[in-house]
Write a structure and sequence with these properties.
The chain contains 17 helices and 37 strands. The chain has 710 residues and is an alpha/beta fold. Keywords: Glycoprotein, Hydrolase, Protease, Serine protease, Signal.
């Protein structure tokens, strides 16, 4: 029995975890406003080590090459992690840029889930995800993204000079096991990483704890933060539904995903003059020329298509090359594409093999919430995602295609041409909260009771992100064998924050993880590029996607603003004692359980979890009136006077005290916020507290509160 043996704090039943699945440096203003302040991109993130708990790394990728920079990487002054060798080539996974590489699979092996042929008993990335996230945070600057003979731009990490430490604990087929992930986190902390990026979270409640904050991830990460490590974790991809977060605790920075300003669109022009919008990252068919269109179902060879769906265009050998050659091939986007047994990459290969001028994938029926992402293709290709536009195409094809009495085609007369989808369009409506991004309220236990802590914490780009891919990667059927992939998820948002945190830590090496988190949150923006309040993608009543006004449950404090985060003016600092106080005062939590995890008896000086010194305020059960306190520290170099203002939706009154305060450099002061129920509406009210400094600093805190009768 492990549970009772000395030296073991707590044992959790192993459960599976899942991965949450390059223009963003410009969108975030890094090359112009941030990198120059730290000595340019070739110094951005110098000597900061970012640890990645993920699916490993593909070490031969140009994003991780150590010779990519004019300044060679020397030995690191303090990191002490080890480097495994590749068992196949006997070469080290490390090169100066990659500074540590280890893999963790004991629990996976014990469960019989580990297959060394596909999972690789080394830090090698057999999935793609780990290479993608590492390059977002710390990939080299100016790496050309080339695919199918096109260059889609230059990729760069947020902190291109930061070092990468790889802790592989996720695997392509089964995800990962909690104890492997926990072992990886513990090792990373022991080795001396500065920052941890986790694109993973629990996918089911553990049986051993009722408290979300003490699930094995969060409990282990508390130890990491105690040791001075900043932790960025993906919020989860269960949006747009409430209470879908898989990251809960105040010591973690929980990252939601935004759509940035770059969109890829394309169109198909029919012979009758209609233009149908669609998506496809592909070149156009030859200009000023139309091509005959042939449907896969009309060019079948014999009866060979019985076993699978020939209209998927996954197998060129079942289609008649003579009829397809030089024409546009029409294919059907069936459920197989959603399930992953068919891919757009295969359609493009089929069309190329048959000598087609291009391909069109037609979506005839769509299950609510299906996400269509543009996929790069070397030949002209387009996906028509709007069912009504698909019907326009099918009607046109049927009217123009003459058939004999058995339904066989006599002549193909439908014509079309495919536009150029390679050039992105920049939109002013960015950023927006992505549909899939997990939403608050945060929960304090696995019966989903609301917590007195706002989550997510911050919003960062996470939709259609170009980044490195592993040539062994099989996670995305459309990118098998490729060097780059364009994918979406809060998994992509978390490493943006990890890399930006590295830039903040480089400038302020003495700051605690809480101070870095505070700087990112209080300087973030709740307006889009057009100056309007942030919007969130959401389902309408008819289950189509629409945009609604976003709330702190969608974006936390707002969208990250890296240059402002380097100079926040004030920070809301917190340390291990504060985190314990938060745990101890959370109603319904078991003090023995806390002691079990922390070896520390509870203190109740905080009185209420809403008093934890977070850069946000959440009161989930506001009866009559409640006052919360916050403590700010002036991290600027000079004295500054701050005026404090507040606003709140009318059902709750808000007051701040004092109305102004002056802080010398390095000094700390407390202020209080009093919330009073005016009317019980049954819904959360949102507001904010703003501290405006006499030297131009602006510090914002989101406020959420739910008024109750008793």
């Amino acid at each position: 029995m492990l549970r009772r043996s000395p030296g073991v704090k707590s044992v959790s039943r192993d459960w599976k975890v899942r991965k949450l699945t390059t223009h963003t440096p410009q969108f975030l203003g890094l090359p112009t406003d941030v990198w120059p302040t730290g000595g340019g991109y070739d110094r951005a993130g110098e000597d900061i080590v970012i640890g990645f708990i993920d699916s490993g790394i593909f070490p031969h990728h140009p994003s991780f090459a150590s010779h990519h920079t004019s300044v060679p990487y020397g030995p690191h002054p303090s990191y002490k992690g080890k480097c495994e060798d590749d068992p196949r080539t006997k070469l080290s996974f490390c090169n100066g840029k990659i500074i540590g590489a280890q893999h963790f699979a004991e629990a996976a092996k014990a469960a019989g889930a580990f297959n060394p042929d596909v999972d690789f008993a080394s830090p090698m990335d057999g999935d793609g995800h780990g290479s993608h996230t590492a390059a977002i945070a710390a990939g080299n600057n100016g790496v050309p993204v080339r695919m199918h003979g096109y260059e889609f731009g230059k990729a760069s990490g947020m902190a291109p000079r930061a070092r990468i430490a790889v802790y592989k604990a996720l695997y392509r087929l089964f995800g990962g096991f909690v104890s492997d992930v926990v072992a990886a986190i513990d090792q990373a902390v022991h080795d001396g990483v500065d920052i941890l990026s986790l694109s993973v979270g629990p996918n089911s409640p553990p049986t051993t704890t009722k408290t979300t904050f003490l699930n094995p991830f969060d409990a282990t990460l508390l130890g990491a933060v105690k040791a001075g490590v900043f932790v960025a974790q993906a919020a989860g991809n269960g949006g747009p539904f409430p209470k879908t977060l898989v990251s809960y605790s105040p010591w973690i920075t929980t990252v939601a995903a935004a759509i940035d300003d770059r969109r890829y669109k394309n169109h198909l022009t029919l012979g009758n003059g209609k233009m149908l919008a669609g998506i496809g990252l592909s070149p156009s068919t030859r200009p000023h020329r139309s091509y005959k269109m042939v449907s896969a179902n009309d060019v079948l060879l014999g009866s060979s298509g019985v076993r699978y769906n020939p209209s998927d265009c996954q197998k060129p050998e079942v289609l008649n090359k003579k009829l397809v050659e030089g024409n546009i091939l029409l294919c059907g986007y069936s459920f197989n594409f959603v399930a992953g047994s068919a891919s757009i990459k295969k359609v493009a290969e089929t069309a190329r093999h048959l000598g087609a001028a291009g391909f069109v994938l037609v979506v005839e029926n769509v299950s609510p919430g299906t996400k269509f992402d543009p996929v790069p293709s070397g030949i002209p290709g387009i996906l028509i995602t709007d069912v009504s536009k698909s019907m326009d195409l099918i009607d046109y094809y049927n009217v123009t295609t003459s058939r004999d009495w058995m339904g066989r085609v006599k002549s193909f007369e439908a014509e079309g041409s495919i536009g150029d989808g390679l050039e992105p369009i920049l939109h002013k409506s960015a950023p927006e909260v992505a549909l899939f991004s997990a939403r608050g309220p945060n929960t304090k236990d696995f019966s989903f009771q609301d917590a007195d802590l706002l989550k997510p914490d911050i919003l960062a780009p996470g939709s259609l992100i170009w980044s490195a891919w592993s040539q062994n990667g099989t996670d995305e059927a459309n990118y098998v064998g490729e060097g780059f992939a364009l994918i979406s998820g809060t998994s992509m948002a978390a490493p943006h924050i990890a890399g930006i945190a590295a830039l903040v830590k480089q400038k302020h090496p003495q700051w605690s993880p809480a101070a870095i988190k505070s700087a990112l949150m209080t300087t973030s923006t709740v307006m889009d590029r057009a100056g309007r309040p942030l919007q969130a993608q959401q389902y309408s009543e008819t289950e189509t996607m629409t945009l609604v006004k976003a709330t702190p449950f969608d974006y936390g404090s707002g969208h990250v603003n890296p240059s402002a985060a380097l100079d926040p003016g004030l920070v809301f600092d917190a340390g291990y004692e504060d985190y314990l106080g938060f745990l101890c005062t959370t109603p319904g939590i078991n003090a023995h359980e806390i002691r079990n995890f922390t070896n520390t008896p509870c203190n109740y000086r905080m009185r209420h979890p809403s008093n934890f010194n977070s850069p946000s305020i959440a009161v989930s059960h506001l009866v009559r009136t409640q006052t919360v306190t916050r403590r700010v520290t002036n991290v600027a170099e000079e004295e500054e006077t701050y005026t404090i203002t507040s606003r709140m939706e009318p059902s709750i009154a808000i007051e701040v005290s004092p109305p102004a305060m002056t802080l010398r450099a390095g000094a700390s002061r407390e202020f209080s916020v009093t919330l009073t129920v005016r009317s019980v509406t049954g819904a959360y009210s949102f507001g904010e507290v703003t501290l405006k400094g006499s030297r131009g600093h602006k510090v914002s805190l989101p406020v959420v509160a739910l008024g109750q009768k008793r």
